[in-house]
Amino acid sequence: ETGVTQTPRHLVMGMTNKKSLKCEQHLGHNAMYWYKQSAKKPLELMFVYNFKEQTENNSVPSRFSPECPNSSHLFLHLHTLQPEDSALYLCASSQERNQPQHFGDGTRLSIL
Amino acid sequence: SQQGEEDPQALSIQEGENATMNCSYKTSINNLQWYRQNSGRGLVHLILIRSNEREKHSGRLRVTLDTSKKSSSLLITASRAADTASYFCATDGETSGSRLTFGEGTQLTVNP
Predict the structure, then answer these.
(1) Which range has the worst mean pLDDT, B33-42, B83-92, B98-107?
(2) What are the beta bridge partners of residue A87?
(3) pLDDT band at B3 (very low <50, low <70, confident <90, very high)
(4) Where is B3: in which H helix or E strand?
(5) Chain A residues with CB-CB distance to B44 below 8 A
(6) Which of A64, A104, B30, B102 sits a CA distance of 20 to 30 A from A20?
């Protein structure tokens, strides 16, 4: 138990669907992150939130839309995804930026 | 890019042996972190070493950092089958803001 919970664990969706990934952290951390992990590629940072404010968007396509309603919850809204978006999406949190990050177990996303 | 690069990409050893994984990076850092990832799970933080430190220990783990060579190594002593996982280094660069940059990882297999 890392203190970071992601739901759902698995998601299969068509390219025209809209779905959302959810992340919740119970650690009292101030920073939250979305990462994409594809096979044989380094972990890719997508978004960073610090005290609920987005501080980084790593040139992510607009079909991915993050939302951080409070410091404990982070969402990733998905819309009109492409097959190459199939990957493991990981959420992480840290007390402050650049401190060790605590990861959830991810959502395995498959785009048909 | 100051992306960390792990070496080797894959390592297979027998239980009880030591495992050494290396990481190289390209620009100045504040700290370097090592993470492990079991199959189908999120990353777990193992150890953080600051740029002014040369060696750090945690249980069976020993991390070294050579900033002149821009490299780090992770040594796992007396390995166990449960150590089988992917191991990643991540660098916190002096100019990277809130971003941790991960390498592609080393897949360690410890055979019983």
Answers:
(1) B98-107
(2) A109
(3) low
(4) none
(5) 2, 103
(6) B102
